Amino acid sequence: MKGNLEAWYMEESEEDQRLPHHYHPPQYISLDKLAELGVLYWHLNPHCYENDEELQKIRESRGYNYMDLLDLCPGKVENYEEKLRNFFREHIHADEEIRYCLQGSGYFDVRDKDDRWIRIWIKAGDMIVLPAGIYHRFTLDTGNYVKLMRLFVGEPVWTPFNRPQEDHPSRKEYVKNLFNKAGTAVEAH
What's the domain count of the chain? Predict the structure, then answer.
């Protein structure tokens, strides 16, 4: 099911990280462009996630056997401001990062081949997979609330490796794949 995922090149700014930071005029990015970077996307029904057959098929086909839910907003998360700062620090992971937005909204920022930021605005129903080794960060938008399903293959490892990580094995593999397989079609979206 196609959604209306919005993504755009992000203007560097010291202003509130929760603002859209569009260029003027905005420079939107297609799902195909995100797929070239290895970012996968599905739009699902967030109101029936507990019994969603499509979600179950994705989980089975990709081996996502771990799942938990995270409510991220002031008052619900211990050390909220600190956690948000940590999520917004540019980093990579050794494994995919899989997030399914059930309520609210927020931004995942990823780097393109030219090291420019692309801001991805996820809203209820949006499920994205960031490949291992991609530089990224996360923040809430001005709504200050998101409920996310976090999926993982095997036991979760939430270790961020802050930039620079050019010698990290997952980063090396990501860069190799990015430049060797540019334009390869993917199943998602």
Answer: 1
